[in-house]
Amino acid sequence: MTNNHYKLLVVDIDGTLLDKGGVVSTEDKNALAGASDSGIQVSLSTGRVVQASLGIINQLSLDGYHVFFDGALVSDPEKSEEVYVEPISKELVRQTGEFAHLNGITLDFYSVTHYFIERETWGSDIRREFHGTQPTVVDITKLWQKERIIKATLTVSSPEERAKADSLYQQFRSSLRFSLTKTPTYPDVDFINVVALEASKGKALETLASHLGIALTEVIAIGDGANDVSLLSKAGLAIAMDNATDELKTVADYVTLDVDHNGVAAAINKLLL
Fold first, then answer.
1. What is the C-alpha separation between 142 and 97, in angstroms, rounded?
2. In the chain, where does the domain assigned CATH 3.30.1240.10 lie?
3. Which strand (E) or helix (H) includes residue 43?
4. Which candidate among 18, 123, 167, 220 keeps its CA 20 to 30 Å from the CA of 161?
């Protein structure tokens, strides 16, 4: 039996589908396939860029539209079709690039197709090895002249890096949206996404559902991080992982098992299939 009230299932990746080994469990794969086979559209909603999500999309045999860049892009990567995009303004790319350069802050930038860095760091090593994204070394103070930038990121581990990240946040907190994300594979690393102030996973979900002709009450969303609050707040059924932040659990209708115990599959099998 399938709960036919729901037509769209939106799932976060890191900490929701991917466990500390960077693996999607067989149980979660089978549950998502069952939802898809029952006629429910399955979409991913992630802070990741497109390139860093393609392996998961292919592994799960998903098609159609997904939310990338922490809500700043909704697209069908197979067709290169953009439904919604909220890039960072060129002026803010210029200002943040110059501020980072002058203050020795490692700030990376992303277009839809490229990953730009000022220099190689341990953070770019992680993104190359874990996300499969190959960086392009550029002069970040001139990047605004040539590229449409969708997201910037700070990769933080040490107290010094946290202090520098905070200085960027204090400088631009009123004009850009900063969100902290984590992955079980690197529990001691903070990945801080920087996107346009108007962008969020919640707004992206509204746009995606509207494009598909689906009411928000017909949407199930599953997540674990602070950047999933807006996503779950918009969904008809909001599910938080047991490893989710306390903030996210407060907006959830249901808390499932943690990522290492197939929480996605448990929720789908109990509430959907």
1. 8
2. 90-196
3. strand 41-44
4. 18
